[in-house]
Amino acid sequence: MSVFEPFDSFSDIDDILFKLEDEDPGIRQVGVMELAETASDDAVPHIIGALSDPSDDVRLQAARVLQEFDGETVAAGLSDALQDSSDTVAAAAADSLAELKSPEAALPLLPLTTHEKPFVRANALRALKGLRHPEALKPGLAALQDPEPEVRMQAVGVLGYLQMEEALHALILAGRDPDIEVRRAAVGALAFSNSSTVSEALIKAISDEAWRVREMAAETIGKLKFTDGTDALMSVTEDEYWQVRLQSVRSLGKIGVARAIPAIVGALEHSISNLRKDAAAALGEIADAGALPYLEKALGDPDPEVRKNVRWAIGQIEAA
Is the fold of 1-102 the same as that of 207-320? Predict the structure, then answer.
């Protein structure tokens, strides 16, 4: 069904279809757009038919407007369009597939996870992610062994969205993938489980050679409020990348352990105001009097947003 609300001024479908037979590709494009504007499910087969038009532009228009519809029929048409001879059309089909919401839309996508083309495999998995269909578990696990990093990363997304314990071990292993972005995605995908094995994996990941993986590990530890990860977070509050410092400070605030205060207060003097602001907020979340001398000193910070958080943090401590 389309997400559009139909307007009375739109032509009936029968009055539009003749445009799809016109010799002028521009007229056929207009026909495709007008079919989409009817917001009628009856228009879907005709728009899908336009995916076979000899004109790249018409096929592109059809692939784009199908994102406004949903269901298994739409998914099947777009799945075929993923294999279009035009890379632009195929990319538009991939984007439209990613907008699908109906669980039944997963069925035509499942076989494509083993397609010969990496682009098709990756985008089939990308579309399956948001559908959260339980049958995507098996192909998602299998795709973690794919030779293409993009395919493996999309497989991690599928498994992370499913949040099934059966995928936990595989996701932990994916956190050791040779590709940085796959490791980063896997570390983030572990946020659904509070198991001790996840805690151990995240603590290891916070020492990863890639700063984007360390950043994600710090964020995920904070989401799960793993107190076991406190020391690991404290160890990266002086990381060479400020993004890692920022996430470590935020997560230490969420965990709320007072012994982390000495590791956080140094960030109150960092040159990046966002880091100073989040350090003040973290100290307010911990709400321990040991942070007061540092916060009082920061009341003169040149950034008003930092001063605002400092005042809030002092208020939290005084109210505790």
Answer: yes
Q: Which of 252, 191, 204 is nearest to 227 (CA)?
A: 252
CB contact at 8 A, 58 and 24 = no
Residue 313, both tokens: 């943090």
Q: How many CB atoms lie within 10 A of CB 211?
A: 17
Report the topology of domain 109-193.
Answer: Leucine-rich Repeat Variant (1.25.10)
Q: Tell the CATH superfamily of the 207-320 domain.
A: Leucine-rich Repeat Variant (1.25.10.10)
Using CA atoms, how far apart are residues 64 and 264, in angstroms rounded to an integer? 48
**Helix (H), strand (E), coil (C) string for 35-69:** HHHCCCHHHHHHHHHHHHCCCHHHHHHHHHHHHHC
Give the model confidence (pLDDT) of 97-119 as tens digits. 999 999 999 999 999 999 999 99
Pick from 94, 90, 40: nearest CA to 67: 94
Domain limits, the chain: 1-102, 109-193, 207-320
Share of the chain above pLDDT 70, in %: 97
- The per-residue pLDDT for range 2-27, each reduced to its tens digit, is 444 444 444 589 889 999 999 999 99
Scanning the structure block, which residue is given the tokens 């037979």?
Answer: 21
